[in-house]
Amino acid sequence: xxxxxxxxxxxxxxxxxxxxxxxxxxxxxxxxxxxxxxxxxxxxxxxxxxxxxxxxxxxxxxxxxxxxxxxxxxxxxxxxxxxxxxxxxxxxxxxxxxxxxxxxxxxxxxxxxxxxxxxxxxxxxxxxxxxxxxxxxxxxxxxxxxxxxxxxxxxxxxxxxxxxxxxxxxxxxxxxxxxxxxxxxxxxxxxxxxxxxxxxxxxxxxxxxxxxxxxxxxxxxxxxxxxxxxxxxxxxxxxxxxxxxxxxxxxxxxxxxxxxxxxxxxxxxxxxxxxxxxxxxxxxxxxxxxxxxxxxxxxxxxxxxxxxxxxxxxxxxxxxxxxxxxxxxxxxxxxxxxxxxxxxxxxxxxxxxxxxxxxxxxxxxxxxxxxxxxxxxxxxxxxxxxxxxxxxxxxxxxxxxxxxxxxxxxxxxxxxxxxxxxxxxxxxxxxxxxxxxxxxxxxxxxxxxxxxxxxxxxxxxxxxxxxxxxxxxxxxxxxxxxxxxxxxxxxxxxxxxxxxxxxxxxxxxxxxxxxxxxxxxxxxxxxxxxxxxxxxxxxxxxxxxxxxxxxxxxxxxxxxxxxxxxxxxxxxxxx
Length: 575
Description:
It contains 18 helices and twelve strands.
């Protein structure tokens, strides 16, 4: 870790020097780091670095799971076929410590900066920015824990090193991992402290003021905590990630229901979800239109926290469109995932179902299937794609590293209006990076209430059954608003499987399944990936790629160079 943190220290100094040289005469560069103490915009740049590279829905790590394969030799493909080890820690998040140090550096200088000339306004800015930095520090540690928490060589359930100060280059970096529960407690404590400083939302609503600001001038409060700060981390966001922390802790691979983590998560989730209207607040278009919107649109009721809208993310279409539309077709959904989508009446997919059509196995299916996966005969904005043997370059393995390997292409997350010309020019598209959305929280609530008491255990009006019913009805499942299959689910175990499948479908290709499988303790049981081939008259299933995960797969490795360099850092079992 020392080499990485030394690099980070010099990167911060370089950021200071380079930024200075862009806006000041050369001789002013001699100010160096001292400028942080009197230039508020310059100092806030350190905090903004703590906001960089937040985990979003565009990781496309599905190729490491049973949901997809890559058509090129990506790190996730290598991971899935047996090359995942501590030397090749493909999903490592150890680099997130860089952003922890940015947050800590900012906290160390915040009191030295004059943010505003008015004393009361200056104090409000300091407190808000402090809350942001503490929240980001907790969030980064959560993401590191999600990847690297696990059983150490001793068999003890371990967390990660928790860093709460900016470490200078000569500091002792040989820091041991905390116990898992202690790490959870430290992250939760930082989240709780941040909640003392951050508003629920950046809308200037005086009714949402944290108690510490009750005596503050209303106009000054609204100036500091108003809508101009939207997209910064808020109290609502902090609460959402705190529930994710508790759900991780309660899950089978970690505490397995011990402690009160399910209860804590349920109480916070009930507060967040009922604040938007409970079941009635489920966005009718949230399963689809949270990422597909007209340029200039800024209202995203499904999205709790997001980045700024950007016109520079058409790389998604370039990478994922099929080759006939001048894309690279990189992520190929699996037939395993296709078969996870139920029949239209809600019954699980089965070739013995009376509505199954062997000549078109995509008929009479969950409508999300046609919206999320570009299968043979499906289209992108009227442009039909043929992946059969007579499909030309869109057919299976027709063009190396461009054609599908599974018989399917990605459709979800793509702007279907984009046109890629043969010369590589591409039409404009606007996208947002999504950090957390409400459907995820509803599904989490279904999971925790079911684990607490089964399908009909309700907390403040929210139960697994009524949440899953609303999500499936929104998707278009069921005939005449009847979902006989859901009605037949009466046991906790059967509801657990249904909830897990709904998470798989609703959140597919958003980076969730890899970590869901691991926290459920079943990633090592991942099955091989199948595809579906059409020969012009019939469909046949075939094997595409193995999944070679050992019993150690539920806990990611700590990069081996860190373990070798620092003897206090204990590696997870099996790595």
